[in-house]
Specification:
This protein is mostly beta strands and 731 residues long. Among the domains are: 1-38; 343-375 and 452-634, 7 Propeller (Methylamine Dehydrogenase, Chain H), CATH 2.130.10; 648-730, Macroglobulin (MG2) domain (Immunoglobulin-like, Sandwich). The protein contains two helices and 65 strands. The protein has a five-stranded mixed beta sheet, with no helix packed on it. It is globular.
Length: 731
C-alpha cells in the first residue's frame, strides 16, 4: 500500500511537472506570437499604397476585385484583402483587369507589360512583353477572351495569350493602314471578328484570317479623327463611344446615334440593361435616351460593375464606392491619403507622410491633411486652417508641423507660431538641436530660422548666400544645409556657437553641386548623395576651409561613380543604405561587404527609382519611397541601447510553423552575441546591428540547429554589460 501511494504521488508530480512545462511553452508561444504580430519578420516587406485612386473593377467567383493606381484588393462578403507581391503578384501599377468565369482566372495587366494569371491556388507571371527590348510604353490596356485564348490590347499592338500553355503565342503589331505599327487601347469580339481601337482609328479582322497580314485588317478612316474610347454591344449592334457621341456601326460606316450629355468613361451591360459612367453620374439607356440614375455620390468615376442591385464604382479620388439604393459607402483598405508623397518624417516610432505640392506651385494648389502610420494603422489627419503640411519634428518634447505657406504649427499646444516672417513662409524642412528648432524658409530673404521655445530669429539669404531646402545636424549641433541646385554651394554648414558659415566649393571634392540627400551617421560623418555619386566629410562637427570630402570605395573602385544617388540612410548598426535609379543597396558599416541589392525584379520594390529613405530606429523598419509608391523593409537592426534591460529572444520556442530567423532585440548597442549548447559549446557568433541581431540557425559547420534548449551569451564590446538567455527549438 505504501509503495502504491509513493508511485501515485510520483505519477501526480510528473503529471504536474509536465503540465507546467506545457503551460510555460504555451505562454512562450502565445507571448512570442503576440510579439511577432507587433513586428514584421526580419527580411520581410510590406506595401503602404493608397487605395483612394481606384481605376479598375471586375467581378468573378463571388469576389469583387479593385485595382487602384498602385495596388490591388478584393472584397468578398464585406471582407477586404490586399493582394500584392506578398501574395505572389509580379507588379504594382495595374493597367487592365478582368475575370474570366469559364477559365476561372483573374487576368491582370500592368503598365510595364507584365501579365499575371491569378488562379484559385497559384499565380502565373508572363513577362514576354515586358522583356521586349524597346524603349517605349508596353502597357497592357484591355483583354477579350475566346475559348482558351485571350487577346491583349497593348501599347505595342495585339498579343495572343494561350491559356493552355500560358504563353504569348502570337503578336500582331504592324496591322494599321499600309502596315503601320499601332498601339491598341480597346478590344471587342463581335460576329467572329476582332475589333480594335488603335491610335490610328478602329481596325477589324475576321478571326479565321491571317491576323499577321495587315491586308486582312479592315480600317475605318473616319474614326481616325473621332478619337473612339470604348467598343461595346448595344441592341445587337456594335457601338462605340467618343468624347461627344455614341455611334453605331451600320455596314461599313459609323452613324451617330445620340449626342452624349457629358464625357463617358465606361459602359457596361447586365441583365439586358446598359449603364454609362461619367465622372459623377451613372446613366441608364432607356428607349434610346440616357437617363441619370445615380449622381453626386462620387467624384471621379473610372470603372463600373453592376452586380444585381449593387453598383460598384472605381473612383479616382474616393476609392471603391459601393452604392445600394440611397446608400453610398467607401470600401478600401487602410492606407495613406495619396501615393503622391512629398516627404517622410519619423517621430517617436510614428511615420508621418506628407503630400505637399512642390514649393514652386504651392500658391496655386492646396492639399488638406497628412498621413500618419503607427501601430500598424494608417490615419489621415487634418488641421483646420493649416494646409500643405510639409514636415514633422519633435523639439523639447513637443511636436511641431511645418507647412508650405502657413508657417509652423505647435501641434502639442494646438497653435501657430506667430511672427511676420512666418505668415506665408514655405517651410521645406526642420531639424532640432538641444537648444533650437531649425527650419528653412524657402525663397525668403530670411531663409533660415530658429525657435528656442520662446522666440524666433532668422539668418538672411545674404548671410547664407543660398536657398536652403533640407537640414541635418551633428552631435555638436553643427547644422548642415542642403541647398537648391541653382545655388553656388550644394551643401554648407553653420556652427551657431561660433557663428561660422562654410560652403562646400567644387574644390572640396564633392562629386556634384546637385545634392539629393544629406545624413549624419553614428560616428559623426556627414554623408552626401549627389547626382554624380556619394561622398562624405569625416567630421560633421568640424568646419574648416581646408575640409575635404572623401568618396567611398567598394572593392577598390569608387562607389557609384558618376551615378545619380537619390537617397541615403543609416540603420541602427550604422550600415549604409543607398537609393538610386537602379534600386536599393545596403553596405556593411565598413563598406567591405554589399549586404543587399534590391530591385523591382528580386524584391517587393514597386520601382527601381528610389526617391527617399526613412529609418525607424525603434522598430528597425526602413521606409522606401519610390516613384510607384511607398513600401517598407524590416531590417535586422535597431537604434543602439545603453544596456541589456530590454532583451527579447523570439520566436521562443521555435516551432514547425516558423521558418524565419531567430531574432535577438533590445540588447546593448553593437553587442557581441554567441549561441551555444546547454553545455557551453559555441555554435555561432555575431555582432548586433545597433540593438538587434538575427541568426538563420545555421551553425559554423553548416548544419541546421536540431531540437533542444540553447543558450545566448550577450556582452557589450568592453565585456562589462553581460546577459545570458535561453531559447528552445521544438520541431
Amino acid at each position: 500500500m505504501e509503495s502504491e501511494k509513493i508511485m501515485k504521488c510520483y505519477a501526480e508530480r510528473v503529471f504536474m511537472i509536465r503540465k507546467s512545462i506545457f503551460f510555460i511553452i504555451y505562454l512562450m508561444i502565445f507571448s512570442q506570437s503576440f510579439l511577432l504580430a507587433q513586428q514584421m519578420a526580419v527580411g520581410s516587406w510590406d506595401s503602404h499604397f493608397s487605395y483612394s485612386e481606384a481605376r479598375h473593377v471586375t467581378f468573378g467567383n463571388g469576389t469583387l476585385f479593385c485595382a487602384a493606381s498602385h495596388g490591388l484588393f478584393s472584397v468578398k462578403e464585406d471582407v477586404l484583402e490586399i493582394i500584392d507581391k506578398n501574395k505572389g503578384l509580379s507588379g504594382v501599377s495595374v493597367s487592365a483587369l478582368n475575370f474570366f468565369e469559364k477559365a476561372q482566372v483573374l487576368v491582370i495587366g500592368y503598365q510595364e507589360g507584365i501579365i499575371d494569371l491569378v488562379y484559385n491556388d497559384h499565380i502565373v507571371s508572363i513577362q514576354t512583353i515586358s522583356n521586349i527590348e524597346m524603349i517605349t510604353s508596353k502597357a497592357i490596356n484591355d483583354f477579350v477572351n475566346q475559348g482558351n485564348h485571350i487577346y491583349l490590347a497593348t501599347d505595342l499592338g495585339i498579343a495572343l495569350l494561350d491559356l493552355k500553355t500560358e504563353e504569348i503565342s502570337d503578336f500582331y503589331s504592324e496591322i494599321g493602314p499600309n502596315g503601320l505599327a499601332v498601339s491598341v487601347q480597346d478590344l471587342f469580339l463581335y460576329n467572329d471578328s476582332l475589333f480594335a481601337i488603335s491610335n490610328k482609328g478602329i481596325l477589324a479582322a475576321d478571326l479565321n484570317s491571317n491576323l499577321f497580314d495587315y491586308n486582312n485588317w479592315g480600317f475605318y478612316p473616319e474614326t481616325s479623327i473621332l478619337k473612339p474610347s470604348r467598343l461595346f454591344e448595344l441592341s445587337n449592334s456594335l457601338a462605340v463611344l467618343n468624347e461627344n457621341y455614341l455611334l453605331m456601326k451600320s455596314n461599313k460606316v459609323w452613324d451617330t446615334l445620340l449626342v452624349l450629355p457629358e464625357v463617358m468613361n465606361q459602359v457596361t451591360s447586365t441583365n439586358r440593361k446598359t449603364y454609362f459612367l461619367s465622372d459623377q453620374r451613372v446613366y441608364e439607356m432607356a428607349e434610346g435616351v440616357l437617363v441619370p440614375l445615380i449622381q453626386d455620390r462620387f467624384s471621379s468615376g473610372h470603372d463600373l460593375i453592376v452586380n444585381g442591385e449593387v453598383f460598384w464604382i472605381a473612383d479616382g479620388d474616393l476609392g471603391l464606392i459601393k452604392i445600394t439604393k440611397e446608400i453610398a459607402q467607401q470600401v478600401r483598405p487602410n492606407g495613406p491619403m495619396s501615393d503622391d508623397i512629398s516627404g517622410m518624417d519619423i517621430v517617436e516610432d510614428v511615420l508621418y507622410v506628407f503630400h505637399t505640392p512642390d514649393p514652386d506651385t504651392t500658391l496655386t494648389e492646396t492639399i488638406e491633411g497628412y498621413s500618419k502610420f503607427g501601430e500598424d494603422q494608417w490615419v489621415v489627419q487634418k488641421i483646420e486652417g493649416f494646409n500643405n503640411i510639409s514636415g514633422a519634428m519633435q523639439f523639447k518634447g513637443q511636436l511641431f508641423l511645418s507647412s508650405h505657406g502657413k508657417g509652423i504649427y505647435d501641434f502639442t499646444a494646438g497653435k501657430l507660431l506667430t511672427h511676420p516672417e512666418l505668415k506665408k513662409a514655405l517651410i521645406t524642412d526642420m531639424w532640432s538641436s538641444d537648444d533650437f528648432l531649425w527650419f528653412t524658409n524657402y525663397m525668403s530673404q530670411k531663409s533660415l530660422g530658429s525657435f528656442d521655445g520662446e522666440s524666433l530669429s532668422f539668418l538672411s539669404s545674404a548671410q547664407l548666400g543660398t536657398t536652403p531646402l533640407s537640414l541635418a545636424g551633428s552631435a555638436e549641433n553643427v547644422l548642415w544645409i542642403k541647398n537648391s541646385p541653382m545655388d553656388r554651394y550644394g551643401v554648407m554648414a553653420f556652427d551657431p556657437s561660433k557663428n561660422l558659415i562654410w560652403g562646400a566649393e567644387p574644390s572640396s571634392n564633392i562629386p556634384s553641386n546637385v545634392v539629393n540627400d544629406i545624413e549624419v551617421n553614428r560616428v559623426g560623418e556627414l554623408w552626401i548623395a549627389t547626382k554624380l555619386g556619394p561622398a562624405y566629410f569625416s567630421d560633421a562637427s568640424l568646419i574648416s576651409d581646408e575640409e575635404q570630402a572623401y568618396v567611398p570605395y567598394f572593392e577598390n573602385e569608387i562607389l557609384f561613380k558618376d551615378e545619380n544617388v537619390t537617397a541615403l540612410a543609416f540603420d541602427g548598426g550604422d550600415r549604409l543604405w543607398l537609393g538610386s535609379e537602379r534600386g536599393l543597396w545596403a553596405f556593411s558599416k565598413t563598406l567591405q561587404t554589399q549586404i543587399h541589392h534590391f530591385t523591382n525584379k528580386n524584391s517587393f520594390l514597386p520601382s527601381n527609382m528610389i526617391l527617399e529613405l526613412a529609418y525607424d530606429g525603434q522598430s528597425g523598419v526602413l521606409y522606401v519611397l519610390t516613384e510607384e509608391g511607398l513600401v517598407s523593409y524590416q531590417t535586422n537592426s535597431s537604434a543602439p541601447l545603453s544596456s541589456n534591460n530590454q532583451v527579447t529572444i523570439y520566436p521562443n520556442p521555435i516551432t514547425t510553423s516558423y521558418d524565419g530567423n531567430l531574432i535577438i532585440s533590445g540588447v546593448v548597442g553593437d553587442a557581441l552575441i554567441k549561441f551555444a549548447t546547454i553545455d557551453g559549446v559555441i555554435l555561432y557568433e555575431t555582432q548586433a546591428n545597433g540593438s538587434m541581431a538575427s541568426w538563420d540557425l545555421i551553425k559554423f559547420n553548416g548544419e541546421r540547429l536540431l531540437n533542444g534548449i540553447y543558450l545566448v551569451f550577450i556582452s557589450d564590446l568592453n565585456g562589462s554589460e553581460k546577459l545570458v538567455g535561453k531559447f528552445a527549438v521544438i520541431r
